[in-house]
Give the backbone structure.
Amino acid sequence: MTAVRDGADEKRYGRSAGRSEDRGLKIVGGVLGVAMLGVVAWCGVAYIGGQKLSGRVITWEAVSDSAVKVHLEVVKDRDAKGVCTLRSVSADKAEVGRKDVTIDGRGEQIDTVVTVRTTDRATTAELVGCSSSDGH
């Protein structure tokens, strides 16, 4: 009861792609995928390798309504110099204190305790970021 149509589907929908055409598309897709991964990896390495200073807040303590004591750890190249910015925030999420800390000590790891003056009681202290001062 079923009729076999040899050429009707081909006329209506066009010829189906052959295996060689599919293989070519797979090769092109694979090459583009590998190239994209290479670009992403290169950007990541350039970003991480380009940072001469990185820091983190180890601990913090609100010592009064007008000050926060922050233990800052900075990892850097031995002779790198720069600035790390700290900020403190109140319970209503308003910034109540900010301080730039100059990092110029020789060595690859600098641990320092910094007091940040605040305009209100702070509920947290955080590192905004660190930047190198040698122009890189």
Observations:
- The helical segments are 8-13, 19-50.
- The chain has a mean pLDDT of 83.
- The longest strand covers residues 53-64.
- Residues 26 and 39 are 20 Å apart (CA to CA).
